Amino acid sequence: MFLRKRHCCSSWLKLNPTRSVIHGIVSGFVTAAFLLFILLAVNNYSWFPKRFANRDTLPAGNLINFHFLKSLRNYSGSKESPEISTSLNQTGEPGNMVTDIYHFKYIINEPNKCLENRLFIILLIAVQPWQSEARQAIRKTWGKEDVVPGVLTLRLFLLGKETASNNDAVQALVKESQTYHDIIQQDYMDTYNNLTLKTLMGLRWVATYCPQIPYVMKTDSDMFVNIEYLINKLLRPDQPPRKSYFTGYLMRDFLPNRNTESKWYMSPELYPGEHYPVFCSGTGYVFSGDLAEKILKASASIKLLHLEDVFVGVCLNKLGILPVPPPKDSDFNHWKVSYSPCLYNQIVTSHQFEPSELITYWENLQKSKHICV
Q1: For residues 280 and 233, is the Cβ–Cβ distance under 8 A?
Q2: For residue 149, what are the contacts with CB-CB under 8 A and spacing of at least 6?
Q3: How far from 182 is each of 159, 217, 235, 281, 296, CA to CA, in Å?
Q4: With contact defined as beta carbons under 8 Å apart, do 137 and 220 qualify?
């Protein structure tokens, strides 16, 4: 009896030769489609880097970077960077980043802000579109471009798109940009997991429009920054600008967070290593202007990580550049430092400020800092 058992459709096909032929054609088509799918998967993830080995070295599974390397050739040393509209998959989830990350269009741009060749430092400030109050507080305090006599600074706010914006909000942002000319915006979704895109946008802007700048600072919208102390004590405009220089609050021997419930979760697929290389807290770090393009080029061969400060550290590690500690361990702080005029007169950063609080502290410091010299 066992030998007589057949597939349920065997006798049906035997009695219907025409249907048997149709079944064979369909089965062959399904088999061919499956084999094509396997071939494409192997093509994309196994030998794709080898195929383009004579052009650029690409990591397996990171297909977007080939387009970026081509764009580097187009914009390096040129004022015209490619503006390629893309169809985006903007989930903002770790490990599921948007497609073709290096080709976001500028919604708002200020391409002529660096025509003054005496600029000393650019402040790249990560901020969300709705945070107009924070931007205004920074403009009134440490973001003033004339805050240090005799030293020219440039303030730029880095923005993506609101996930649920309305026309009034869009128009308000356009009006703000036309008033202050300090907003740079591209068409990716402005989420926490897209902070790496925001930092790369800032680096791209510097490399494209201001490659000769001596120094750059990347920081956040809820920070207190003592620009005078940073410029006069750390960067020293009376001395020749440094090259390949990167400093901030150093994060050493940090392990990837494997807790899937954590805000800082890092999957083994994205970063399989046991330790991160040395990096600087994204709350505020400073680097020489020549590193903007170098970090961009290094990022083209590194899988994108959603933790932007870690990602920049990985890029630096690939370049063989080790972030250096500031003169004092207390210079950069990624927490909120208890306020006193004399203490704040001797630090670069403090974290977690509301806009009104920032203005109060800043005004008090300006009145009191002379007694702490």
Answers
A1: no
A2: none
A3: 11, 15, 23, 24, 22
A4: no
User: Which 3-state string (H, E, C) describes 110-172?
Assistant: CCCCCCCCCEEEEEEEECCCCCHHHHHHHHHCCCCCCCCCCCEEEEEEEEEECCCCCHHHHHH
The identity of residue 205, as a single letter, is: W
Residue with tokens 């399904």: 30
Model pTM score: 0.75
Give 163-185 pLDDT, tens digit per residue: 887 899 999 999 999 999 999 99
- Supply 301's token pair: 């061969």
Residues 29-54 have pLDDT tens digits of 656 666 655 555 444 433 333 222 33
